[in-house]
Every structure is written in C-alpha cells, then in structure tokens.
Amino acid sequence: MKKxxxxxxxxxxxxxxxxxxxxxxxxxxNAIETxxxxxxxxxxxxxxxxxxxxxxxxxxxxxxxxEFGPFFERYGTATIxxxxxxxxDKYIAKLNMAKYPSARIFLQFMFTKKxxxxx
Length: 119
Fold this sequence. Notes:
The chain is of the alpha+beta class. Helices cover 54% and strands 19% of the residues. Strand 1 and strand 2 form a beta hairpin.
C-alpha cells in the first residue's frame, strides 16, 4: 500500500513540474537563450532580436559590441547554468564562462507581458 502511495505522489509531482512551465515562461527562457547565443556568436543583431521595439531603436549594434565585445574577449563563451524567476517580469540568468570556469556572471532581464526584453 505504501508503495502505491509513494508512486502516486511521485507521478503527481512530475505532473506539476511538467505543467508549471507556462508558455510565457518558455518565451522568456527562449529570449534569454537567444541573447546568450548572440553573445557567444558575437552576433549583435541576434542579441537585439528579443528586445522591445523601442529598445531596438535606442540600443544599436555598436553599443552592444562596445559593452559585450570586451566581456566576450575576457570571459569567452557563456553557458546558462540556471535561470531564476525573481518576479513575474524579472529573470536572472546565472552564466558559466569558458575562460573562467569558477566565475559566475549574472544577467538580469526585465520582460513585458508579451515576453519582449525591456531592460
């Protein structure tokens, strides 16, 4: 009897884990992954893609290159370790860096309700 209760609880927990990720969260996770992929490829157009339209107007590829070019040179490629939700619209990505495996870099992203990066 205990075995069935434990198995049932386990299956219920798997259901909750699988259903807890909403499409809005997936959109935001994909946006963060796009920014990190753009950083790794030094593709600043790709980094701008998930930005809010007004952000695309004010943040140029040159500005991104000036900010993230030296960062990439110093730390190398980034991989996402974890993404933490600090509120409905704020996510913090913890990155592992190739050149400094012990270094941990945190990037904070603020999203609109439609999943575009606003800050």
